[in-house]
Sequence to fold (225 residues):
Amino acid sequence: GAVVSQHPSRVICKSGTSVKIECRSLDFQATTMFWYRQFPKKSLMLMATSNEGSKATYEQGVEKDKFLINHASLTLSTLTVTSAHPEDSSFYICSARITDTEAFFGQGTRLTVV
Amino acid sequence: AQSVSQHNHHVILSEAASLELGCNYSYGGTVNLFWYVQYPGQHLQLLLKYFSGDPLVKGIKGFEAEFIKSKFSFNLRKPSVQWSDTAEYFCASSGFQKLVFGTGTRLLVSP
Fold:
């Protein structure tokens, strides 16, 4: 299947700093990418839909000023967690869809804010 | 609103036992349905998908799922589980563009 690469896989940052997570589609072009957050023992919560060349669409309750999403090219979307706090510590996963029927997922990024 | 519910949060089975994981969805329009698996330390992988045609869908590793429209269900089954099936299983539905996941079922298969 198609490959989606996410970087970094783990990051530790200090409270108040910003962290950028990259999501790349390696062998296909993705006009739409999705960002999820996975809480321990819980499901994946869709945070936002990232469309190439336009503003991201955020789900209800997700702060768009805190979770900045940029989808500047057909193979790269970035999620920046701004002014991170310990409660932002989580597992963030991106995915990209080629068609309406299947999505491919990145390896995920474990963010720890200390 | 689009939603997916999985009834079993934790399932423990012995090897060779049969498996059925429940999944119910709600969505007013045409829906595509998926089962994803996440093995320990690995990323999500697609097990199988349904979008039309035969409601009994066969996936990888001996898994299958049956789409029952009248029950809004898409249960995952495997006749005989193996220790290597220990993982977390997520049911998901796709309506208009968005892919929405259930809460997941953690399966532990004891040898």
Notes: The interface with chain B takes residues 1, 32, 34, 36, 41-44, 46, 49, 93, 95, 97, 100-108 of chain A (CB under 8 Å). The longest strand of chain A covers residues 90-99.
